[in-house]
């Protein structure tokens, strides 16, 4: 593992694969290197041409955290990785990480292009919107020492997992790592903002993104996620929409890597 130091002194842990044009992979809510090996696998498959950064977002895995949280701090984390690379980077974001990637590009970081995988956007009634006080509820649970309840709220309200299925998840090895970093779920809630409110995307959000954007979704994913991908692609004038056959809200490195290679080249 290597590290960079962000503008506020936060240590960001990462692994880099290969040499060449930089690609920064940005996880969505609850994911980091210890529980999501896919970024490393993608990096290895692209290592012949690209320098791929798989990193832990602040507050997760091997990265530290500095209060108070602000989206700008996470943008600065990405900026520190791009500075390490020494040249403009392509940003790839999973789920809510894709919105962070767009925010980073809009903020003026040296970004050459952005790839989004199933951005969590709800602009109609295809599924219930997030509660208007979603972030406030998450913060309250964490402040009360109930990270388990914060994780439950994320699973039921954001991921739409049935409550009975969440009870089963609690008995699996998957649950402890989610609960451990549940305080960061509110970070993603802030990044999402009103994107899951059931209302159209704000006209001015990402208006400064001028680089090419590729919006991906699996053609077997939930209808809300395919609709969200389509809404984001329509919202961004430089975006291309592409469905990945047979995939849903996750995919395999062997499927994703060729798509990224095509976009990168």
Automatic annotation (TrEMBL):
GO terms for molecular function: catalytic activity. The lineage of its organism: Bacteria, Bacillati, Actinomycetota, Actinomycetes, Propionibacteriales. InterPro entries: AB_hydrolase, AB_hydrolase_1, AB_hydrolase_fold. This is Pimeloyl-ACP methyl ester carboxylesterase. Residues 40-250 form the AB hydrolase-1 domain. PANTHER family: AB HYDROLASE-1 DOMAIN-CONTAINING PROTEIN, HYDROLASE, ALPHA/BETA FOLD FAMILY PROTEIN. Pfam families: Abhydrolase_6. It comes from Kribbella shirazensis.
